[in-house]
Specification:
peptidoglycan L,D-transpeptidase activity, LD-transpeptidase, mainly beta, cell shape, elongated, disordered N terminus, 641 residues
Length: 641
């Protein structure tokens, strides 16, 4: 009897291990564990709901492979081997247990369970069970009932391929839906939609279009994975592709919905200009266009000048552009329009002709002399125009109060102007085509300044020449003018030296260091003058060094009475020195020689013995008084031979 029981168990176990599952439970659930990637997939109603990382056996044979059932569900199972209570944080089984009938067991040996070592998840770490994170096994525990099929395998196949190979009815799954031309497209464009699947058996395809109001089926379920659609109306559409396996009882297994935009191509209805042809050059001409759907269209404006097309406005929503032709000629105006979603160069275009002529225009107006100019200069006014041979020129001058015509309209494009009065002027040239009916077609003005050259009447000094060194001498000119610039130069007998460069300061303080004959010069020019200077004045000036008497000769102080004695003086400094000799006669000074250029005098010594004092006075020739004096006392007495 025992042998029969054992045989029945083995037969039953073999049936369990090798028979294909029926997936008969009402929830149509399936769990697949792939040891190759250590992942668990949970299926419900033909689709993967979630995938999880798991830990499997430390060696390849520890975790059994095959098709099994969940035969029990246990919360907080104790870990009997180490006597750890169920639900304890150190319980290696976690707090949820999904027991499997693997290898003839009854769900208490092999299981999908939680763990107390989260770092082991995703590795090969267990003795045979399948470990999950505790929060994930709790979720899975609540989803699956007892008798749910579990497939454990080691393969490179996808989960869907594994499920299908074990007889699980995997729902068809859309991989991608492509379009032959990308959205957006214009109306009446043929668009082909093509779907591909990544799962499912014998897929059928259905296509529907939503126009903003209702869904319309453009292909019902069919084995054709493609459909052609040619929209005739602009709008924002939704395209829906649905797929299901042939044996599926669902309305669809999977679907994808995407947006597709269809627009109406632009159509140019009219092109207009603000002023009719012909018009002169440099005239602002507004070109406008109207189209079928102006709020969605873009416009491009181009001009053909007889040689090439030029874009004056690239595509924009602005249906109007300003054109200012600068060259005469026969033009073509072209407007191209396209819907803002269009990928074409243009959807529609219109062209019109336009004539432009050239009125007279001043291209340059200049003078031969740059402003400002001195009042004695002749200024030539010269004008150039776009077409001198057909244009007439008129020259006018404004003196600050009114305009005066200096040359009326003529073919002469130059005029010589000479203005003696200084001031700020305006010069104007007006030009018109010889056939023009306007008072003038174009004009240009120039500002011009006329100044009078600076003059200088004289040089003044606060001290008359001569003066001594170190004397502060103020050099100035009475002809002071706020518009004039003054430069002060001094010649020291050898070279000129600028002591104050051009500035509006008309005085200079000079303190000469050395004596000599100097030339003082003031150069003056108007602040607008381009000359080195307009005028100058010079003044000779003498600077004397202080006169110093250094010696009286003879040096011998004792002399015979009644002899002719020559007394001479040695002096330095001054200018053209004059000498005066005096002798003290009792209490009175008596002149031996009045001021002269001679520095010596012959003195007949007195016959009466005694001490006599001779005084020398020295001054420069133009000095009013002596500048230095020196005395010498001589003794007159008989000297024994």
């Amino acid at each position: 009897m025992k042998k029969l029981t054992v045989l029945l168990i083995l037969v039953f176990s073999t049936f369990f291990l090798f028979s294909q599952p029926t997936f008969a439970n009402s929830s149509n659930q399936l769990i697949i564990i792939n040891k190759a990637s250590n992942q668990l997939a949970y299926y419900n109603n033909g689709k993967i709901v979630k995938t999880f990382k798991v830990a499997t056996g430390r060696q390849s044979g520890y975790t059994p492979e095959g098709t099994f059932k969940i035969v029990n569900k246990i919360k907080n199972r104790p870990y009997y081997k180490a006597n750890i209570a169920g639900g304890a944080t150190n319980n290696p089984l976690g707090d949820r247990w999904l027991g499997l009938n693997a290898r003839g067991t009854n769900g208490t040996t092999y299981a999908i369970h939680g763990n107390n070592n989260a770092n082991s998840i995703g590795t090969y770490a267990s003795a045979g069970c399948v470990r999950m994170h505790n929060d994930e096994i709790r979720w899975l525990f609540d989803q699956v009932p007892v008798n749910t099929t579990v497939i454990i395998t080691n393969t490179s196949k996808t989960f869907d391929s594994i499920a299908a190979s074990h007889g699980y009815n995997v729902g068809s799954k859309l991989n991608n839906v492509t379009t032959s031309v990308k959205s957006p497209q214009p109306t009446n464009t043929s668009v082909k939609f093509t779907a591909t699947t990544s799962a499912g058996k014998d897929p059928l395809f259905k296509y529907s279009v939503y126009d903003g109001k209702k869904w319309t089926t453009i292909q019902n379920y069919s084995t054709s994975k493609s459909v052609n659609w040619k929209p005739t109306k602009a709008g924002s559409y939704k395209i829906k592709a649905q797929v299901k396996s042939r044996n599926s009882k669902k309305a669809f297994d999977d679907e994808k919905v995407f947006n597709y935009t269809v627009f109406s191509p632009a159509s140019v209805k009219n092109v207009a200009t603000s002023v009719s042809s012909p018009q002169p050059t440099n005239k602002n001409i507004s070109i406008s266009a109207t189209s079928n759907s102006s709020q969605n269209n873009e416009y491009k404006f181009s001009i053909y000048d007889g040689e090439k097309w030029k874009t004056i406005q690239g595509y924009s929503s602005n249906a109007k552009v300003n054109w200012k032709p600068t060259k005469e000629g026969s033009y073509k105006i072209k407007v191209q329009a396209r819907h803002k979603l269009s990928k074409k160069k243009f959807d529609s275009e219109k062209t019109m002709k336009y004539t432009v002529y050239a009125p007279a225009k001043v291209t340059s107006f200049k003078t031969n002399l740059a402003s400002p100019s001195p009042s004695d200069a002749t200024v030539q006014l010269t004008a150039q125009s776009n077409n001198n041979k057909n244009n007439l020129f008129k020259f006018l001058v404004h003196d600050g109060s009114k305009w005066k015509t200096v040359q009326d309209f003529s073919s002469n494009s130059t005029f010589n102007w000479k203005q003696m009065n200084e001031g700020s002027y305006k010069l104007k040239v007006q030009v018109k085509h010889k056939s023009s009916t306007k008072s003038f077609d174009h004009e240009k003005e120039l500002n011009y300044v006329i100044f009078k050259k600076a003059t200088i009447d004289s040089i003044q000094t606060n001290k008359v020449s001569p003066q001594f060194t170190k004397t502060n001498i103020v050099i100035s000119t009475p002809s002071n003018n706020k518009d004039h610039l003054y430069r002060f130069r001094i010649h020291n007998g050898t070279e000129w030296k600028t002591v104050q460069d051009f500035s509006n300061k008309s005085t200079y303080d000079w303190k000469p260091e050395y004596g000599g004959q100097y030339i003082l010069k003031i150069e003056v020019k108007h602040k607008f003058s381009k000359e080195k200077f307009d005028a100058s004045q010079e003044l000779k000036y003498i600077i004397n060094s202080p006169v110093t008497l250094t010696d009286i000769a003879p040096a011998n102080l004792v002399h015979q009475p009644g002899m002719m004695l020559t007394v001479s003086a040695t002096a330095t400094g001054g200018s053209e020195l004059m000498y005066k000799f005096e002798i003290l006669d009792g209490s009175t000074w008596r002149t031996l020689q009045d001021y002269s250029s001679s520095n010596s005098v012959v003195w007949e010594t007195p016959k009466e013995e005694g001490d006599y004092t001779i005084r020398v006075l020295v001054k420069s020739k133009n000095s009013p008084d002596f500048e230095a004096t020196l005395e010498q006392t001589y003794t007159i007495k008989e000297i024994d031979e």
